[in-house]
Amino acid sequence: MSDDIVLTYRIETPGSVEKLAEKIASDQSTGTFVPLPGETPELKARVAARVLAVRPLEPVEEPAFGRSHDDLAAPRSFRCSEADIAFPMEAIGTDLAALMTIAIGGVFSIKGFSGIRVTDIRLPPAFGEAWPGPQFGIEGSKRLTGVSGRPIIGTIVKPALGLRPPESAAMVKELVEADVDFIKDDEKLMSPAYSPLAERVKAIMPVVLDHEQRTGKKVMVAFGITATDPDEMMRNHDLVLAAGGNAAIVNINSIGMGAMAFLRRRSGLVLHAHRNGWDILTRHPSLGLDFRVYQTFWRLLGVDQFQINGIAAKYWEPDASFLHSYHALRRPLFRDDDRPLPVVGSGQWGGQAPATYAAVGSTDLLYLCGGGVVSHPMGPAAGVRAVRQAWEAAVAGVDLDAYAADHPELAASIRAFGGPDAKGA
User: Fold this and answer.
1) Can you tell me the distance from the alpha carbon of 292 to that of 323, in angstroms, rounded to the nearest whole number?
2) Which is nearest to 131 in space by CA: 331, 297, 332?
3) What is the Cα–Cα distance from 367 to 412, expressed in whole angstroms?
4) Which residues make beta-bridge pairs with 183?
5) How far apart are CA 382 and CA 356, in angstroms?
6) Which of 181, 155, 179 is nearest to 168 (CA)?
7) How many CB atoms lie within 10 A of CB 169?
8) Global confidence as pTM
9) What is the pLDDT along the chain (425 residues), one digit of tens a residue?
């Protein structure tokens, strides 16, 4: 078993779950629709996948694929089970492209499913030896920001503002003087005509370095270096590193696994991963790819910080899904230092700090607020202080409203963002 790759599938079908599990095992390893020359039982036994277990789940009345398919129109209920399928290492090796092909390649093409989702993955130790994992991760992020005993507090410079480099630098100056720990480009901000990356770095990094010289604190700024061409992305990386920067944001689904591997092996920056487009893969609970599986690939490839949503997020994801993602990142794959720093975001402001701390039980996270900081009624600097104050209250177990009584920034934040429909960004 230690040499097997084990994938877990949630199978939904009007027919036999067991037969479809065997079909996945066959099609994704040795199976074809006709026997092949040279095919022997011994050969198939060495490289064929095997169904290890099938665990029944509650049936459902509506198919995940919808009733537009002729074979799904009539049934009144659909059987559901989880199936563990083992693939021999000898047949796949440690290449992640090969692993992804086995995991999803032809599975979603098989007839008979009314829903299919990859829900878990277990890998042999050889994968931990073959891939670098995070270079900085949790401890490196804390060391570079000088933060311990509380979350790293971060914010975002939004592209919709249309800020030019000097204007971005002015906002960064206000934020660093407010003692923020982390600032990132929005994932949509790479190198537009109104704010080319080179000009943005040239304007912002002197502000960061001057603040470091005066105070001893170097605020981490993650510049958007994403590019289709890995060589261009490396040039972007080198530009940031040469200017004294220590972080970059990378849109991992846009660049792909190969480009991420290329970047990680040459990188001197903390790599902050934005999972742009992940919702396409996972939003339907009976289709696609579970975050537990998805994050495994990117962690092996070497992301240092992994952006997820948060409590009471502004998007579709419920709190339970956020917690599932958070705990997936917190579990070591093979060792403690292969864990990236969870980045909690999406509509966050200080108001979610108590619920977040109660749910995750840790301050090992980057708490990322966009509008919850920069749209604070007293200004972005007050927004930073308000979030810090909210986390002080959360960790101390003090009611937020009570703590706000003598913390005016937090009080203003509660008034601005605390209504039933109010959100940060």
Assistant:
1) 11
2) 297
3) 19
4) 155, 221
5) 21
6) 155
7) 21
8) 0.93
9) 468 999 999 999 999 999 999 999 999 887 644 454 555 555 556 678 999 999 999 999 999 998 887 778 787 889 999 999 999 999 899 999 999 999 998 899 999 999 999 999 999 999 999 999 999 999 999 999 999 999 999 999 875 568 999 999 999 999 999 899 999 998 988 899 999 999 999 999 999 999 999 999 999 999 999 999 999 999 999 999 999 999 999 999 999 999 999 999 999 999 999 999 999 999 999 999 999 999 999 999 999 999 999 999 999 999 999 999 999 999 999 999 999 999 999 999 999 999 999 999 999 999 999 889 989 999 988 999 999 999 999 999 999 999 999 999 999 999 999 864 444 44
Please state the φ and ψ torsions of residue 400, each to the nearest 5 degrees.
-60, -45
Residue whose pair of structure tokens reads 């204007």 in the numeric block: 167
- What would the two tokens of residue 248 be? 């970059």
Token pair listed for 100: 């992804």
Amino acid at 78: F
Query: Token digits for 400?
Result: 């937020």
Encoded amino acid at 275, one letter: R
- What SS3 string covers the chain? CCCEEEEEEEEEECCCHHHHHHHHHHHCCCCCCCCCCCCCHHHHHHHCCEEEEEEEEEEECCCCCCCCCHHHCCCCCEEEEEEEEEEEHHHHCCCHHHHHHHHHCCHHHCCCCCEEEEEEEECCCHHHHHCCCCCCHHHHHHHHHCCCCCCEEEEEECHHHCCCHHHHHHHHHHHHHCCCCEEEECCCCCCCCCCCHHHHHHHHHHHHHHHHHHHCCCCEEEEECCCCCHHHHHHHHHHHHHCCCCEEEEEHHHHHHHHHHHHHCCCCCEEEEECCCHHHHHCCCCEEECHHHHHHHHHHHCCCEEEECCCCCCCCCCHHHHHHHHHHHHCCCCCHHHCCEEEECCCCCHHHHHHHHHHHCCCCCEEEECHHHHCCCCCHHHHHHHHHHHHHHHHHCCCHHHHHCCCHHHHHHHHHHCCCCCCCC
